Amino acid sequence: MSFPTTRLRRLRAKPALRALTRETTLAPGNLVAPLFICHGEKVRRPVASMPGHAQLSVDEAVRDAEALARSGVGGVLLFGIPVAKDPEGKEAYDEKGIIPQALRALKRAVPDLLLWADVCLCEYTDHGHCGVLQGESVDNDRTLPLLARASTVYAAAGADLIAPSDMMDGRVGAIRRALDEGGFPDTPIVSYAAKYASAFYGPFREAAESTPKFGDRRAYQMDPANAREALREVALDIEEGADMVMVKPALPYLDVIRMVKERFDVPVVAYSVSGEFAMIQAAAQLGWLDGGLAAWESLISIRRAGADVIVTYFAREIAPVLGSRSS
Ligand code: PBG
Question: For FRET with 61, which of 7, 18, 86, 141 sits at 20 to 30 Å CA-CA?
Fold first, then answer.
């Protein structure tokens, strides 16, 4: 049946019809908000390239987390900024470190909010790479026990989900074994399975102070040109015990999100990274586009591609208004 019998505009004619026939939904519970935690008290140090975001001391993070919990988000993802950095990233797995402190305080203040703990060494190493070095390259196998230790320390401090973002081979298995042996068999792992060596991490590295001091991350993060390799990464992580898998970044990799969703039956997380946020914010500040609408369109597209959950810096702005959006 074709025109004039068929008129696709009929179902677009008014907001209620559009809402009735919308194929994809976006709810606060689909969104996870990253938070950057630093030492001190009453600290709220703005991140220039990420308007509305700041490095927060634990007391300030608690205030933000309370507001996020009220808006119904699916959790907060914590990144830590240590007091001091060293070659082995010691504060990452110190039970008195910044992330365990934050986890304990947040669990006490907002017990129902899911606490996602990012696991990586790059914020904690003085060279800024995601593992310990052997010469100028990251030593995969010597890094694994440190990531495993960080994971059990975070689980003990109250993390609900452990999210390794380092891209070492075998880390999901190492972390699963450590959690099981450490008495945390029920703590799920969300692996950053397909994490690309991306230019879109720029603003994050300012926020987390994690820029590598030499070289780049292309010897461990994925080549942006590859999609089939992402399926191998995901398959291996699931085999090693990942409960959920992540694709990161999101917008430039919607095809990868779709392929992962079609091929595997685990929940799929997409990380819409700092550069994706910064691009929209910058254009909105210049008056070149409507920031709120562009953010919503990006997020609904990521959901349409197949993401169950989206980690996004827009969570704080978007979550509270989602229920009221009907157009
Ligand atoms: C650290 C990590 C990075 C991001 C999340 N975890 C940066 C990197 O790999 O350099 C990026 C997040 C973002 O840009 O929003 N392993």
Answer: 86
pLDDT in tens, 60-83: 999 999 999 999 999 999 999 999
| Residues shown for the chain | 327
- 310 Cα to the center of ligand 1, angstroms: 15
Give the H or E element holding residue 55.
Answer: strand 54-57
Q: How far is the CA of 18 from the centre of ligand 1 (A)?
A: 37
Identify which of 120, 124, 192, 314 to mutate to test ligand 1's pocket (most ligand atoms within 8 A of the CB).
Answer: 120
Tell me, rounded to whole angstroms, the distance of Cα 215 from its chain centroid. Answer: 24
Which residues, at least 6 apart from 191, have a Cβ–Cβ distance to it below 8 Å?
163, 164, 171, 172, 237, 242, 244, 245, 246
Q: Is the pLDDT of residue 323 over 90?
A: no
Ligand 1 site, residue 274, Cβ cutoff 6 A: yes
214 Cβ contact list (under 8 Å, min separation 6):
127, 136
Q: What is the pLDDT of residues 172-211, one digit of tens each?
A: 999 999 999 999 999 999 999 999 999 999 999 989 889 9
What value does the mean pLDDT take over residues 54-62?
A: 98
- Spell out a b/e string for 13-32, using b for 16 or more CB atoms within 10 Å of the CB, else e: eeeeeeeeeeeeebebebbb
Ordered by where they begin, the domains of the chain are 25-325 (3.20.20.70)
User: What is the spatial distance between Cα 18 and Cα 25, in angstroms, rounded to a whole number?
Assistant: 12
- At 324, is the pLDDT very low, low, confident or very high (cuts 50, 70, 90)? low
